[in-house]
Amino acid sequence: MDLNNRPVWLLPALSAAAALILGAVIVAVQLGARSEAGSGAAPMRVSGQAQIGGPFTLVNQDGETVTDADFRGQAMLIYFGFTYCPDICPTSLQVMNAALAQLPEDDRGAFQPLLISVDPERDTPELLAQYVDSPAFPEGLMGLTGTEEQVRAAARAYRVFYSRVDDDGVSTEYTVDHSSLVYLMGPDGSFVDVFPHNTTPDQMAARLQRFLEDNPVQS
Ligand code: NI
Question: In angstroms, what is the span from residue 169 Cα to ligand 1's centroid?
Fold first, then answer.
């Protein structure tokens, strides 16, 4: 159909519709640009109480039951991962180590680094004990595992996704897809900051330093 064959009264309506569509496209592009700008590695400061974190009951590398309440008075640096992870988890724990190493030695103790396993079936306390002992990882890193239910509850509290990936569901040769985030939780257990996977040691150290300025170490 040719535009010239349309009634004359329809033409203004058509151009108005075209203008509306163009306007919607421009707004959509601007919104997209804004959300991309917001997802960079810039500090994610959340005002108010974010719904991240909460009570957990797990088992540490010495086979002792620990809860979130055991860490009150200390900030927690929490990473969810698993010892069989070939690269993502070790990299994240190395970044955490490098960031902590940039802080004055007296300040490092303000932070308790925690690895919470998303693979409780294979990550026994004994295996975690060997793993957290690696000199590449933060000193004092505590490994936490537990029953499937305990781990699921902890992951849910921290909005962490994980999913076992294997063909038959029986083999012990499987991997686990999981979120790769480091959470900074304050001495009262509340959410302070989250570091996405591409965070550099410098960026993490700067934000830990800022946290210490806001929350001076009691001595
Ligand atoms: Ni991993």
Answer: 19
What is the pTM (predicted TM-score) of this model?
0.76
Contact present, 181 and 195 (Cβ < 8 Å): yes
- Compute the distance between CA of residue 91 and CA of residue 41 in angstroms, rounded to an integer: 17
Q: Tell me the CA–centroid distance for residue 152 and ligand 1, in Å.
A: 16
8-29 CB burial, b ≥16 within 10 A, e <16: eeeeeeeeeeeeeeeeeeeeee
Domains for the chain: give ranges and CATH numbers.
16-165+173-214 (3.40.30.10)
Q: How many angstroms is it from 130 CA to the middle of ligand 1? A: 17
Q: What angle do CA 56, 60, 61 make, to 5 degrees?
A: 160
- In tens digits, the chain (219 residues) has pLDDT values of 444 444 444 445 545 555 544 444 444 434 333 333 333 444 555 555 558 999 999 999 999 999 999 999 999 999 999 999 999 999 999 999 999 999 999 999 999 999 999 999 999 999 999 999 999 999 999 999 999 999 999 999 999 999 999 867 677 789 999 999 999 999 999 999 999 999 999 999 999 999 999 988 665
114 alpha carbon – ligand 1 mean position (Å):
14
Distance 83 CA to ligand 1 centre (A): 8
And the tokens for 129? 């004990």
- Cα separation, 105 vs 113, whole angstroms: 15
Distance between Cα 116 and ligand 1 center (Å): 11
